[in-house]
Amino acid sequence: MSNSNRRPLLAKLASFAGVLIGLAGVAFVVRTILTKREEVGDAFTELNGVTLIASLLLGLSAMTLIGYVWTRMLVTRGHHAPPRSAMAWYFAGQLGKYVPGGIWPIVGRAELATRGGVPRPDAYAATGLSMVTTYLAAALAICIGSLLSWSYPLAGVLGLAGMGIGFAIFSNAGLRTKVLGMINRVSPRAAALTEPRRLLLLTMIHLPAWILMSLSTSVTASAFGADIGIVHMLFITSASWLAGFVVVGVPGGIGVRESVFTALAGTAINPGVAVSLALASRVVFIAVDLVGALVANIVARTASSTKA
Fold first, then answer.
1. What is the band of 216 on the pLDDT scale with cuts at 50, 70, 90?
2. What is the domain count for the chain?
3. What pTM was estimated for this model as a whole?
């Protein structure tokens, strides 16, 4: 079998495996809800709606930061990407993660940028780099949260060691040339976007977004009367989001994120409250995506009509 035929087959197998993992995650969450239905019911009766608004605003701040960094990537490549329009492209593209397949957040965001005048190769390169550095920052947040909270400290040590080794390998000119040779088939300008120092800088810039997401989840936890330390929540939130991202073929990591979150948070709080918190956090971040897309679109249209 040729390499060209092998790749689609591997992609289909990965997607199929992802769907199975997602279904297993959903089954785990449903089972937890059924076996802990009294605790889940009690948790939701204590839910504080006002606190959820604060959680939504923190989540919106996190996503806005990620979007803003992405718009700066486009601008630094010399392209005209007005912040108001670019943020509308970003949030509209974010809605693509709820479509099965896993590639739609990248395709949606990049294609909207292309329609806005950004050359397609650069739009895809910037979007891919945004996704990579966002989740590299999530891996870093997992390590920091693990070590500072001393929950699964071995994971933090091994994670930092792995990231350090990976960065050292990528900093090697010969190995990086081979990697960029493959990336350049998609974008001939990718070499400038993936220079090691820039990769490290963009990863660090995205770290505050994960802190904000963890704060959002902590506020949601307080709405349930649950008490989880912020550094512990940084570990739990980042780990569950990263797990949902790396499993291919599951829209928005549904089921995977919740099952990982419930398993990790269940060691600190009642499992019924943990699954309730996972579900409530999912609802909050769906609201974040919808509100962000709505507001960004209104702002972009208002700006366009004002110029006209």
1. very high
2. 1
3. 0.81
